[in-house]
Structure formats: structure tokens, C-alpha cells
Design a protein that fits this description.
With 906 residues, this protein is mainly β. It contains five helices and 59 strands. Helices cover 5% and strands 49% of the residues. The strands form twelve sheets. It has a 15-stranded antiparallel beta sheet that branches. Strands 16-17-47-46-45 form a five-stranded antiparallel beta sheet, with no helix packed on it. Strands 22, 23, 24, 25 and 26 form a five-stranded antiparallel beta sheet that branches.
Length: 906
């Protein structure tokens, strides 16, 4: 007969009911590798990337004197592991189960144990469709011995049970739809997350011939959002949820086949321009493709309505919709592989106008916020009113209207100056609108206005109307570094076309402000293209205007969006020149001036957030890269500090919800961008962020957020748009990566030449340079001596890791030795956290291991155990004790055996 799988080495255990043989060391469940061959490549979702088992769990194997046996998963913490197996089998819902606090604690404990044992892969994982997922292992196999096999060629061991796993994973992607939204000829861009959950179980019939049968339950779901601005004039908000329930079966001799499958889809979308909205009704449909599921007739889908309606004012009835002057900031710590940092967030208003279009500007530590609110005393079509509040770092002032003339306001922009003066510009209706005014009629009444905040009286002056005509004027931009030399630009279209084209050309207007009065507006250029977005920067003598233009006049094609440039110098404008010609989407240009006076251009190029200095496109920096263009990334905003730092903020999908905010910081000295960092982590969809600096070392953002998708994946209803804020303090934080201090070779003896190395990390927000890393023999705080030092020359970017090393000869004498590594040992850098600057490691230490374990029966119930203990360390060991346990590393003690002192390699 054959030996049972995993039958050696064995230990003998005796009890009152008989005896058993158990594996002394857990056995690798190599047969789970067979799952890679079971799943056919044609199975949906997997494509050409089927299952690949990256880590094979370990099993405890037991054979009893009654002829039975078992294979169980070998949890390091056996009691907790068994408890969790019971919990999982009760509900078989991994998505809920993985949030079980006991499971999370177990994974943490298992990881720590593996780290202690020096095992590189801490948790079980498989590869599904090219994406890695962690899983909860399911192994429960029984075995029974057939005595008749002793006289024939049968295997002798019969198996019955199951093995597999339960888990889920997420896949993020971007898909595009070129159907225009409402009157704006730009496409939808859907960013979605695919979640796949379920369990995969095989029934074991014959381990040796690898014959299996079983089921696979896969429950994919899709959740996505379009909660971002897609145009200078409009903002989109939409959701899509899609899911499926599938059950696959495969008998031992037949190919895998689909037993059950149903798919459901639900979507809705909305576009806002001013007080108007275009929307689709919720569309639901269920398809039954196989099995006993019931087909449900779909609701008829409706395209985006051709005629808009006024936005409902249900948010005005929210009882808590007041402005929080003293917001209750909640601080959250973010921990990534390369950075640890804190972000504070708070709600300023729990219910506000859906597109409040916040605009931020600051001087020093004082920030000014402008946004669009709903004046409940006005009629619905005239409701939008521009309001303002000042923030001193802890408290906001009571909001006040900005030059209120009773007309509808949209799209504010502002600059704040050192004496407290605020200059604001916005889209303003030339008169109040009648209740029967249509959307096209409203467009022809849109004008550009400006006003000043007097820093002495803290009051706004009257509105100055810079345009007064019967055509569309929109998208004001304000640029300049001092209040007596400002440049204002905006776009007009004589045919009231929201984008423009060769047959409906746009005009770019400008006016200058000298600190007292505005100049007469003049046309800077005629633009015979559709304008997607544009940006302006002005250093006091030279202005650059960068526009993203629709190059072929067809809004259904988007790869032809290219960047163009207009230059203002010497009091006159140049001609329109093209900057990009790459058949790649070039969108949302943002301009800023750094501390050296260089023009920094940031824009979205395809799936990349890119940046160049002074329009040198040969030195383009990629800040963030994605597989495809996304309107979430394309809606980023930019801000500049007084010392020339630049920050960008954008919404992106994350593990916590459908959308969260991310930021990246530009260092003007080293001309480097830091790694993107996540700023929010909640279930809400963050939209339309505004950004500014408080001083040089803190960023402040205000934004809209709304719950669009519930935690269970369903579409949210009855939720309001909030106005929220966040703060993040920038700082230096240099660290040494935990457990990265190493000696090579690891088991060297005194007198040996070795290499000491450690991984330095920049876990802060600022670029560093010429950073010292010093190695010590002994704790430097307790008289340790310097071995040698190394320097991280840099520039050392935020989020970057660099390995430094030095040669060393281990000294003769007292061992073992404790070596230390310290980054920035002299405290030259003002670190946010010095607790992560020092790590240590013992060297020239003994390293005992059990090479062999065997037993011998010497009586009816007496056995002799023989263990071979080996010292593979760098120095001799002292006398020690070997403890033998039953079942697992935490099981009952069988025996404690003395081990003599061992020389190196003895």
C-alpha cells in the first residue's frame, strides 16, 4: 500500500482512547496547486489569467489508532483559528466575515508569528484574473484506512472532505461613453470598481490521482461614480451598480459548467448647470442566464432629458443644514507602505446647494472661502447667491453675501492679498430672471462681475459689471501676485454655445485691475475651437493662457483635445499656438508660478497627471499614472504657497468608497513632485474640491461630498450634498524602515567581514537632501560607539526609500553584539516624529533549529523521542531547553528536553 499524503515525519501521541500519529512539522498543502488546472481559462472574469496559488497553506495531519485521520489548516493560534472556522461556516459570507474583529486580530497575530519565524509570505493569497486577493482557507479532509489493502495493490487510504477558500478582491478601471450630457458636448467618463466575492470549494475524491469535484460561487459587483465636473460650465453626478450571482460546478470526469447565473444593473445620472439639472430616471434590469433564477422585466431606460428642470430644493428642509463656524475636526491617520500622516476633516454644512463651487484663496494663515448658496427667500431660478467666510485656522466667520444684487450667481474665483484685501469675480445674471425663463434665455443673460472686500471694514463693495451684453459670458479667471496689477480673463460666445466651434467661435476677453479700477474689457483672441478648460498665470509683466481645445470640432471624439497657448507681454497678446499634437487626451491645464518665477503647467495627458516647468515638454514629470483617462483625475485643482510650493488635489476611487480625495506636493527648490497621498477615506463621493495653502506648510481644502452608493453597493436615495473641509500639515519625517537593518552574511562570526545595510524612508511631505545615517556598536544613547556613517545624498522625495550600507568587521570579544542605525543622528532636520529614526539588530548570535525529530516505541505506552538540534548561528550557544508540544506550537507540552551548549555549526 502507499503512504498517506504528508505522513512523515510523525510523532506518537498516546491517550486513554488509544493512540495517534501526528506530523511533527505542518505539511504544505501542495495539492491545492491543482486548483490552477481545474479553473478553465474560458471562465468569465478570469480571461487568460486564471487562478494562481501564490501561497500554499500548511496543514496539521493526524492518523488515529482506529484507522481514521484528518487534514486541518494549521493556524498558529489554533484556538482562535478554529473559532473563526466555525463562525465562517455558520454564514459563509466572506465580505461580512472579513470585518469580524476576531478575524482581523487573527490575521495580525498570524502575521506577527510569521515575521518572527522569518517567513516571507505572511498571509494566504491567490491570483485571480491577474489581481491578488487574500483569502480565508477552508481545509477539512477526513481519511480512513482500508485494511484489505495490506494484501493487494490498493492505495489503502480513502479520502472524504473538501478544500478551498473564501475571499474577495477589487479591480479598478475606467470606461468611456461618448454620449453627450444635456447641452454640453462632452462625454461621460465612468470610473468603477469591480468587486468579486464568494467561495471556491473542491470535494476530494482521490488525492493521488488528483480527482476532484465541487462548486465555485462567484458574486461580482460593479460600483462606479461620475461625481465630478466635466466642463467649465457644468458638473456631473452619477452612479452605476451592477452585479451577478453565479454558481459553477464540475464533476470529476466532465468539464466545468455553469449551474446558475443572474445579472442585475441599476444606474442613474444627473448634470448641473447653475440652478438647472438634466437627469435620467433610475434604470433597473435583471437577466436570468441559467438555472432557477427568475427574470425580471426591466424598467424602460430614459436618455438624458433634452429639457432641463430646476434643481429641487429639498435640501433646505434639512434640520442641520447650518454653517458650522467651529467645525468638529476629526483626525485620521493614514498608513501606507511609504508614508504615515494625519488629515483632519469636518462638515461645514450637512445640506447645501448641489453644486456649491467652492473657491479658496489665502494669505499667511488666513483663508477666504467663496461658494454658491441657496437664498431661500428668492425664487427657485434666482436662488444661487455668492457668499463668503474667512477662516483663521480654527474658526470661520459668519458667512455673508458678496455684493448681493438679487440676481443669480455662479462660478466664483478670488485672490487674497497680504493686507487682507480679497478680489472676487464670478458669473452674474444681468437682471433677475422670470419664473418662465428658459435655459437658453438664461445663457444670454450671463455676465461677468467683480467686487472687493475692504480689509478694514470687512465688508464687500458693490459689484462691478465687466460685461454687459446679450450673449453668453462665462468662466472668469483671475491672476496676479499683487492687488494693484491683476489680470482677469473670461470667455464669451455670440451664439450662446457652451463650448464653441469653428462655426460658433469663442472670444477670450481680458481686463486689468490697478488696485482702484478695472480697465475697459478688450478681446484678447478669437478661438475657433471648442474650449474644454483653460487656465491663466500672470507674473506682473507676462501672462500665459493655456487652453484645452477640441481640435476636430467633434465632441464625440476626445483624443483630439490638445493644449494651446496665448502669451500676454508688453501690453499686447500674441497669436494662438499649439503645444501638443499627440492624439492623446490633453485636458484641464492648471498654471502656477513657483518661487523662482517659473511657470509650472500641470495637466492630464491621457491617464497621466503630468507637469512641466516653463513649457519644456522634453522634461515632463508624471505625477500620477492610470491605465486610461478619467474625469475624476481630470477634475484636479491646484494651489501655490508663498514660498513656491504647489499642491494638486483630485478625486479618485479608493478602497474606502466610490471616491476619495488625493493630493501631491511640488518642491520648487528641487523641482520634484512627491508621491500622491490619500486625504479622505469614507463612503461619500467627494466632488469639486478647492485648495489653498495656510502659510507654507499646511493645505486647506473645501469640497462637496455626497453619499451616492451605500455600503452594501445599492444606490443611495434621499441624501444631500454637504460642504466639507480638510486640513493637512506638511512636515519632515525621515525614518528607518522597520526590520530593515541587516548584516550580510547573516550568521557571521566575530572577526568576519560583513556589510551592514538599512533602508532609509522619507515618510514626510518635503524633499530632503544630504541626510546622515550612522551605524553604532551599541545603543548611542547608552555609550554605543560609532561604526561608520553613510549619506542619503538625494534629492530624497516624499514616499521614497533608499538603501544605504557600510562595510564592517565584527570585533572579537564579548558577543552577541547589538548594532544600531540612526537617521539624522544630530537632529539637523525638524522631524515630525523622531520615534522612527532608530532601529537595532543583534549580530553574532547563536541560531538553533531542529534538523530532525524521530521516535521509537520501547514499551506498551512508552516511547523514546530523538531530536537533532543544530546551531547555524555566528557564535556558540549556551545550554537551552527543547520543548515538544502536541497538535501545534501552542498545544499541550509532551516533554522538555535539555540541550547542551553548542559550538558554531555543531
Amino acid at each position: 500500500m502507499t503512504k498517506p499524503l504528508g505522513a512523515t515525519p510523525l510523532s506518537f501521541v498516546s491517550d486513554l482512547n488509544g493512540f495517534s500519529y501526528k506530523t511533527a512539522v505542518p505539511v504544505k498543502a501542495e495539492f491545492l496547486k491543482s486548483l490552477e488546472k481545474v479553473v478553465d481559462k474560458s471562465v468569465p472574469v478570469f480571461g487568460d489569467n486564471p487562478f494562481r496559488v501564490n501561497y500554499i497553506p500548511e496543514l496539521d495531519v493526524s492518523f488515529k489508532s482506529d484507522g481514521t485521520g484528518s487534514y486541518k489548516y494549521s493556524w498558529k493560534n489554533m484556538a482562535m483559528g478554529k473559532s473563526l472556522e466555525k463562525d465562517y461556516y455558520q454564514h459563509r459570507d466572506y465580505r461580512k466575515f472579513k470585518t469580524n474583529y476576531k478575524y482581523l486580530e487573527l490575521l495580525k497575530a498570524e502575521s506577527e508569528i510569521y515575521k518572527t519565524l522569518g517567513i516571507g509570505i505572511p498571509l494566504p493569497s491567490v491570483n485571480v484574473g491577474g489581481r491578488e486577493m487574500t483569502f480565508f482557507p477552508l481545509v477539512d479532509i477526513g481519511v480512513e484506512f482500508n485494511p484489505n489493502s495490506c494484501s493487494n495493490n490498493e492505495a489503502g487510504w480513502k479520502y472524504k472532505g473538501s478544500a478551498g477558500f473564501a475571499g474577495d478582491f477589487k479591480y479598478e478601471a475606467v470606461r468611456q461613453n461618448v454620449t453627450p450630457l444635456g447641452p454640453i458636448p462632452v462625454p461621460w467618463y465612468l470610473k468603477f470598481t469591480l468587486s468579486l466575492g464568494g467561495d471556491f470549494t473542491i470535494s476530494v475524491n482521490d488525492l493521488f490521482d488528483k480527482k476532484f469535484s465541487g462548486t465555485m460561487n462567484l458574486n461580482p459587483s460593479v460600483a462606479g461614480s461620475l461625481g465630478v465636473g466635466v466642463h467649465e460650465m457644468g458638473a456631473a453626478e452619477g452612479t452605476l451598480t451592477m452585479g451577478a450571482e453565479t454558481k459553477w460546478m464540475w464533476p470529476s470526469l466532465n468539464p466545468m459548467h455553469l449551474e446558475e447565473m443572474s445579472i442585475f444593473l441599476e444606474e442613474k445620472a444627473r448634470l448641473y448647470i447653475g440652478p438647472w439639472e438634466w437627469n435620467t430616471n433610475a434604470y433597473k434590469q435583471t437577466w436570468c442566464l441559467a438555472g432557477p433564477c427568475v427574470q425580471q422585466a426591466p424598467s424602460l431606460p430614459e436618455r438624458m432629458s433634452a429639457e432641463p428642470v430646476l434643481v429641487a430644493r429639498d435640501y433646505l428642509t434639512a434640520g442641520t443644514a447650518t454653517f458650522e463656524r467651529e467645525p468638529n475636526l476629526a483626525t485620521r491617520q493614514f498608513v501606507t507602505a511609504s508614508q504615515t500622516y494625519n488629515v483632519s476633516t469636518a462638515s461645514l454644512s450637512s445640506a447645501t446647494f448641489p453644486v456649491s463651487s467652492p473657491s479658496l484663496s489665502a494669505t499667511g494663515n488666513i483663508a477666504n472661502l467663496l461658494w454658491i448658496s441657496d437664498n431661500a427667500s428668492r425664487s427657485p431660478i434666482n436662488r444661487t447667491m455668492l457668499v463668503h467666510s474667512t477662516y483663521n485656522g480654527s474658526v470661520w466667520r459668519q458667512p455673508v453675501p458678496v455684493a448681493d444684487d438679487g440676481t443669480s450667481d455662479t462660478s466664483p474665483a478670488a485672490l487674497t492679498f497680504g493686507d487682507g484685501t480679497v478680489v472676487a469675480v464670478w458669473e452674474n445674471m444681468q437682471s433677475t430672471l422670470g419664473d418662465t425663463t428658459t435655459f437658453p434665455e438664461m445663457l444670454s443673460k450671463m455676465e461677468i462681475s467683480a467686487a472687493l472686500l475692504n480689509p478694514v471694514t470687512s465688508s464687500w463693495g458693490p459689484a462691478v459689471h465687466l460685461s454687459s451684453n446679450s450673449v453668453l459670458d462665462r468662466s472668469p479667471k483671475l491672476a496676479g501676485t499683487v492687488k494693484n496689477n491683476l489680470l482677469l480673463t473670461w470667455i464669451s460666445n455670440d451664439q450662446d454655445d457652451l463650448s464653441g466651434s469653428a462655426t460658433k467661435p469663442n472670444k477670450l476677453w481680458y481686463a486689468r485691475f490697478n488696485g482702484t479700477a478695472w480697465s475697459q474689457p478688450v478681446v484678447a483672441a478669437t478661438v475657433p475651437f471648442g474650449i474644454n478648460r483653460y487656465s491663466v498665470a500672470y507674473d506682473g509683466s507676462v501672462a500665459n493662457v493655456i487652453l484645452s481645445l477640441d481640435n476636430d470640432g467633434n465632441p464625440a471624439t476626445i483624443t483630439d483635445l490638445e493644449l494651446y497657448r496665448l502669451i500676454y507681454a508688453g501690453g499686447s497678446w500674441g497669436t494662438l499656438s499649439r503645444l501638443t499634437s499627440d492624439n492623446i487626451i490633453d485636458s484641464n491645464p492648471q498654471l502656477a508660478l513657483d518661487s523662482n518665477g517659473a511657470f509650472i503647467l500641470t495637466w492630464v495627458r491621457g491617464g497621466e497627471l503630468s507637469s512641466v516647468s516653463d513649457f519644456d515638454f522634453t522634461q515632463r514629470t508624471v505625477i500620477r499614472s492610470e491605465e486610461e483617462y478619467s474625469s475624476t483625475l481630470a477634475d484636479f485643482k491646484q494651489a501655490t504657497a508663498a514660498d513656491g510650493k504647489i499642491a494638486v488635489i483630485y478625486a479618485d476611487t479608493s478602497d474606502a468608497g466610490s471616491s476619495d480625495l488625493f493630493a501631491a506636493i511640488y518642491d520648487p527648490i528641487f523641482k520634484l513632485w512627491g508621491n500622491p497621498m490619500q486625504l479622505t477615506a469614507d463612503a461619500h463621493t467627494e466632488q469639486r474640491p478647492a485648495l489653498t495653502f495656510l502659510g507654507n506648510d499646511s493645505i486647506l481644502a473645501c469640497y462637496n461630498r455626497k453619499l451616492l452608493i451605500n455600503a452594501d453597493g445599492s444606490l443611495a436615495t434621499g441624501t444631500y450634498t454637504e460642504l466639507a473641509m480638510l486640513k493637512h500639515a506638511l512636515g519632515n519625517d525621515l525614518a528607518l524602515k522597520g526590520a530593515s537593518l541587516a548584516v550580510d552574511p547573516a550568521n557571521a562570526a566575530p572577526g568576519s567581514a560583513v556589510t551592514l545595510s538599512v533602508v532609509a524612508q522619507n515618510v514626510g511631505d518635503k524633499v530632503a537632501q544630504n541626510i546622515a545615517v550612522t551605524f553604532y556598536n551599541g545603543d548611542p544613547a547608552a555609550g554605543g560607539t560609532i561604526i561608520d556613517g553613510a549619506t542619503v545624498v538625494g534629492p530624497f522625495r516624499p514616499g521614497e526609500e533608499i538603501t544605504v550600507s557600510i562595510p564592517w568587521t565584527i570585533p572579537q570579544g564579548s558577543v552577541p553584539l547589538i548594532i544600531y542605525a540612526v537617521i539624522d543622528p544630530d537632529g539637523v532636520i525638524d522631524n515630525l516624529n523622531r520615534g522612527n529614526n532608530k532601529i537595532s539588530l543583534a549580530v553574532a548570535v547563536p541560531d538553533l533549529s531542529v534538523r530532525e525529530l524521530s521516535w521509537e516505541k520501547i514499551g506498551p505506552v512508552r516511547f523514546r523521542l530523538v531530536a537533532n538540534v543544530f546551531n547555524n548561528g555566528g557564535t556558540a550557544s549556551t545550554a537551552s531547553t527543547l520543548v515538544l508540544r502536541s497538535d501545534s506550537a501552542t498545544g499541550p507540552v509532551l516533554a522538555s528536553l535539555p540541550v547542551k551548549a553548542l559550538e558554531r555549526f555543531e
